[in-house]
């Protein structure tokens, strides 16, 4: 029974373990379970990175037609990820700091950190300098939906705010608020203090 | 940490710019929305036609036309707003250029003050005096030699010149063949050969 990798319609290469039926069931043995969880974590994060998905919900295992179908289901072996198992995997992601419950105080939906906020902060600052927009007032909308698609397109505003917060601590960004909304100004600053 | 010192203050001007940009964003989103409605009406019209409801289809198309005019108007307003924003940003740039020029000119003035003209003149004069003094001394020292000594010095100089120039060549021509006849010496030996006769003769003359 050779397990094979499989390329999804969107062009993502699923690892061979995805074709193994036991992958989709919670394992009684803690050691095996730890390895399997590790594999699921890697798979989920790399899929999210590939398709630039930021949210994962238990709901994605309950219903079909969402963005996560290619990963949560394997019709070729007639297996799918059960919601309870997904909830467990999600809690493990949060425990490892690779996701946060978003909105807070619930355990069904998380925001994935396939790139940590600190890394997003760097990407953000880098983008602002390379497009010559340092010291310019910018709106959040301008950043996540720029006329030219960039690394930051469609970034969730909450993640954007976290990244800006990190930059503000090293004096590389400044948040400005007016009656109608908020904006940010990126500064050259010095990396570090 | 003192991080706040490097962060510029948020001026009311900045807030005004932000406000305008937020308005611009709102317009852009409004445009996106209208575009979406446009597309949907198009689909609806097609469906109605397929179902044979010509009237409904016509209504949908009229809706669509109306939305298109809205879109055009929004475009015009958006352009105006964006122009205003860029003009303001440009004038901010101009202000900072002016500020830079002012600072530069201030610095130049300060430096010029330190370099006052009279001081420079005085310095040049003093240097000239010192140089003239130096020349006088050299002349006096030069004139301390009696005419006889001067003649001897000149003679020595002429000898040296004569030896250094023409003799060097015949010396080399005669000496070079010798080198292979004697021991297997390096090329260095001809050089002492050339120099030594010069040194020997000078004491003889003196």
From TrEMBL, chain A:
SUPFAM superfamilies for the chain: Winged helix' DNA-binding domain (SSF46785)
One annotated GO biological process: protein transport to vacuole involved in ubiquitin-dependent protein catabolic process via the multivesicular body sorting pathway
Superkingdom, taxonomy of origin: Eukaryota
Keyword Calcium: no
Alphabetical UniProt keywords: Protein transport, Transport
Transmembrane regions listed in the UniProt entry: none
A single Gene Ontology CC term: ESCRT II complex
GO MF annotation, one: protein homodimerization activity
Keyword Protein transport: yes
Family: Belongs to the VPS25 family.
Protein's UniProt name: ESCRT-II complex vps25 subunit
Source species: Thelephora terrestris
TrEMBL record, chain B:
Transmembrane stretches, start-end: none
Keyword annotations of the record: Coiled coil, Endosome, Membrane, Protein transport, Transport
GO cellular component assignments: ESCRT III complex; multivesicular body
Domain of life: Eukaryota
Compartments, as annotated in UniProt: Endosome membrane
GO biological process, one term: protein transport
Basic and acidic residues: bias regions: 183-194
Family of the protein in this entry: Belongs to the SNF7 family.
One Pfam short name: Snf7
Chain coiled-coil ranges: 13-47
InterPro entries: Snf7_fam (IPR005024)
The protein's name in its UniProt record: Snf7 family
Region described as Disordered: spans on this chain: 163-194
């Amino acid at each position: 029974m050779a397990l094979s990798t499989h390329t999804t319609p969107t062009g993502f290469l699923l690892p061979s373990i995805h074709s193994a039926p036991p992958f989709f069931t919670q394992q009684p043995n803690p050691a095996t379970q730890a390895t399997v969880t590790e594999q699921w974590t890697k798979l989920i994060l790399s899929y999210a990175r590939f398709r630039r998905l930021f949210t994962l919900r238990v709901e994605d295992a309950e219903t079909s037609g969402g963005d996560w179908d290619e990963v949560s289901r394997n019709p070729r072996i007639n297996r799918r990820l059960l919601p309870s198992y997904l909830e467990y995997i999600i809690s493990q992601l949060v425990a490892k700091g690779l996701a946060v419950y978003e909105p807070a105080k619930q355990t069904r939906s998380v925001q994935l950190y396939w790139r940590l906020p600190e890394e997003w902060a760097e990407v953000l600052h880098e983008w602002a300098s390379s497009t010559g927009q340092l010291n310019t007032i910018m709106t959040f909308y301008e950043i996540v939906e720029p006329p030219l698609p960039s690394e930051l397109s469609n970034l969730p505003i909450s993640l954007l705010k976290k990244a800006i917060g990190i930059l503000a601590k090293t004096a590389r960004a400044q948040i400005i608020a007016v009656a109608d909304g908020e904006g940010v100004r990126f500064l050259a600053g010095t990396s570090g203090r | 940490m003192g991080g706040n010192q490097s962060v510029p203050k948020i001026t009311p001007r900045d807030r005004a710019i932000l406000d305008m940009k937020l308005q611009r964003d709102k317009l852009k989103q409004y445009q996106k929305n209208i575009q979406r409605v446009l597309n949907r009406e198009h689909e609806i019209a097609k469906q109605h036609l397929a179902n044979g409801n010509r009237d409904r289809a016509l209504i949908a198309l009229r809706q669509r036309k109306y939305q298109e005019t809205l879109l055009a108007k929004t475009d015009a307003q958006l352009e105006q707003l964006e122009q205003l924003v860029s003009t303001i940003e440009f004038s901010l740039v101009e202000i900072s250029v002016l500020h830079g020029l002012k600072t530069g000119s201030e610095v130049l003035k300060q430096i010029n003050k330190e370099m006052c003209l009279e001081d420079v003149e005085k310095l040049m004069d003093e240097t000239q005096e010192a140089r003239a003094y130096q020349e006088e001394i050299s002349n006096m020292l030069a004139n301390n030699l009696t005419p006889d000594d001067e003649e001897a010095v000149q003679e020595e100089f002429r000898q040296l010149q004569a030896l250094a120039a023409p003799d060097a060549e015949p010396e080399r021509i005669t000496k070079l063949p010798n080198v292979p006849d004697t021991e297997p010496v390096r090329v260095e030996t001809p050089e002492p050969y050339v120099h030594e006769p010069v040194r020997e003769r000078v004491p003889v003359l003196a």
